[in-house]
Specification:
It is a single chain. The chain is α/β, with parallel strands linked by helices. It has five helices and five strands. 49% of the residues lie in helices and 20% in strands. The chain has a five-stranded mixed β-sheet with strand order 3-2-1-4-5.
Length: 168
């Protein structure tokens, strides 16, 4: 299975593509959609969507994993980030990709075993899992790859141990 992880941001949106057979993980690609210098928000949304469409066309993922944001300190920033997430979700829907959303807490717990882990710990674990020489150091990329890894681990567990409805 090929998984596209996306860490949405208004200046930089990180993406990472991994492949998994349910046991092993391998890095396919990682990069950043840089939106600094794009003048207005509508232009940024369009640029992000077009760039994401190109990533999807090049790597042909089976599923996507996106960070779910529950709260943000600045209301304006939260609104702008929500618009970016909307553009990303629309592009993923256009591509027909199933989307799985995880909070930062879930990602940290899946990778490090501790939901309050620091970004550096997540980056280091991402490097260990995907080969140190191949994972670029910026957090935008390692966060996107961490989202993909989180989904790989979560979906593998769900396939191995499917939920059985409780008897009544």
């Amino acid at each position: 299975m090929r998984i596209l992880g996306i860490d949405p941001g208004t200046a930089i949106t990180g993406y990472g593509v991994i492949e998994t057979d349910g046991r092993r993980l391998s890095l396919v690609s990682a990069g950043a959609i840089r939106l600094r210098g794009v003048p207005e928000e509508g232009g940024r949304l369009r640029q992000a969507a077009e760039s994401l469409a190109a990533v999807i066309a090049e790597h042909i993922p089976d599923e996507a994993s996106l960070e779910r944001v529950f709260h943000h300190a600045n209301v304006r920033s939260a609104l702008v980030l929500s618009q970016m997430r909307g553009a990303i979700l629309l592009e993923l829907a256009r591509a027909g990709l199933p989307v799985h959303e995880y909070t930062a807490l879930q990602v940290k717990k899946a990778l490090v075993g501790y939901g309050r882990a620091q970004k550096e710990q997540v980056r280091q674990m991402t490097q260990r899992l995907l080969a140190p020489a191949l994972v670029p150091p910026p957090h935008d990329l390692s966060d996107a790859l961490a989202l993909a890894i989180c989904h790989a681990h979560t979906s593998a567990g769900q396939r191995r141990y499917p939920c059985v409805p409780a008897r009544r």
